[in-house]
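User: Need the bound-state model for zinc ion:
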Amino acid sequence: MPFQIPPPVLERLRARRLEQRQLRAARSAAGALREPTGGNFIDTIRRLFAGASSVEEVAGQYVAAMYAWQDEVEDKYDAFLLDPGMGPMAYLTSDGRVLEDLRGWDGDEIVEVGGFRAHSALIVGARNTRIVELLELIPQPPPGSSVCSRCNGERVAEPVPGFGTELPCNECDARGWIDAA
Ligand SMILES: [Zn+2]
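Assistant: Bound-state model below.
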């Protein structure tokens, strides 16, 4: 089921997309980028280890490819980038679906995701965009559900104590609550 995005949140997502696009255009104009080459992230790493190109060259090409993918997905699906990676680039569409672009990682397609992956993308997206209302798209606990004991309802937890960073909790699908047994 798609998420219901309130109109004011959609407005902020659109404003941020425009601002980010202008920043990317400025960076491209500054000449730091190379012509994008084909292939996903793993291909890029392979090219690097094959020693055929310098780190600078490959990094420049990869960033150019990410920019091109982002423009394409944003336009095609009316989508907003939530998470540039580590992992597939994840987007929220204006009609409330979460998409992962596997080209940015280890595949060659764009897939719709739900559950843990969708909630994780919203959590990371709320951090990246500072639009905290994105967290409110995650389903609220229904009557009879219980608070997740691993993340205490926070939706994020350290994978092991002392890890230093909290990651989306996979015990509760990053919702913060567990269905009634
Ligand atoms: Zn949890």
